[in-house]
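Hi L., both proteins are below.
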Amino acid sequence: MNKIEKILCDYPFIILDGGFATELEKKDLDLKDRLWSAKIIAEDPDAVRDVHLSYLNAGADCIITSSYQATVPGFIAAGYSRSEAVELIGKSFRIASEAVKLFYETSPDMSKRPHPFIAASAGCYGSFLADGSEYRGDYHLDLKEYKDFHRERVDILAGAGAEIIAFESFPCLEEAAAVAELMEEY
């Protein structure tokens, strides 16, 4: 039985967090960047943690990392080194873990809700392109290229401790099928 099934045995539903980027923008953080909210992992990790905490305090049972647009090639295109990119992608999960730990330590009564958990966000290939392709799906790679692109991020996030990957906003059926096939390897 996986983590979600265990929770649903004791609780009738799971509450997810909300619009992460929207909350960062409310903090006057500029997300107009090819990395979108992923750039805040490097620039203001405390703000990322605070958004996670605000969702946990609002009742979220599952928070989603700020890694939707975080890819090694994306960070490299933004001027980071490969090792910095790998570190920042893993850091997205570690920040969320820190928020869950802090929330759990400071919450007065956890008996009425499940222990919060984390889903590591992974956007489609189009989100890496940072040109709106993630909405149109007008990009095409072959099966191996899609799998290689996503494998790297999955490996980094899993290495940081992620047990759940939330693949989000896939407008391209071929890419979704490639990811489903990739996940059979884990």
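That was the first. Here is the second:
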Amino acid sequence: MYGAGVSISSVLINNSDINFVFHVFTDYVDDDYLKSFNETAKQFNTSIIVYLIDPKYFADLPTSQFWSYATYFRVLSFEYLSESISTLLYLDADVVCKGSLKPLTEIIFKDEFAAVIPDNDSTQAACAKRLNIPEMNGRYFNAGVIYVNLKKWHEANLTPYLLKLLRGETKYGSLKYLDQDALNIAFNMNNIYLGKDFDTIYTLKNELHDRSHRKFQQTITDKTVLIHYTGITKPWHSWAGYPSASYFNIAREQSPWKKYPLKEARTVAEMQKQYKHLFAHGEYIKGITSLIKYKLKK
């Protein structure tokens, strides 16, 4: 919820000329988070609707080390909201806005399923080969940012086919990237393709190999509108204090979410990343302490 709250705030801070209604799909929310969403809505004069999802709904669908059942909230939101609205901008919770979304509001859909952004080049080739769809190379999209034509979605009745894909009941077999693969197959490249400024993928892992902590500027530029922080380390983590994560912190400081402290490592994977980043920061005592915790937890 922390990431989603700041993500929403970043959209509102940079797009005061657009009226939004936000739909947040989650499997957990407490009174404090609900209060923060209400404060955000009041501060920015917007509407935020929170949906509490029962994870049992996805019990028969596959998950992986990197993809939990929460990934299916995307498809669920498309299906549910297609009953009442015609278009939807879907954003993962680790997406931060730093520019105008006005160009998206000017898109006029014809028969396309969505406006999407091609994934990284290396992912393109690998996914096209893995799915045995060579023509998808260059058009395989990342599902972290999708401006979806819900009218088309509803008319096509895609959900039954997507469930078959996800259960491995089609010629494609088990899908490595779960609903992202399924959406790419189901949309069949019938999309509007946007520039990467609308889904600039950046991993904070890069900072471990850049002592200057400035190389991110080659990826995140003045033209970047949406930054997608992929990987285990997120900008809301306490060890992610790099200039590349500043866009998250800028939005956080201008929103009700500034009252929440940055998150500490909880999982083994997060602990592993934490000590490495602390060493990169030159915080050796904290890094050693974190390393010991990681070893004990492991």
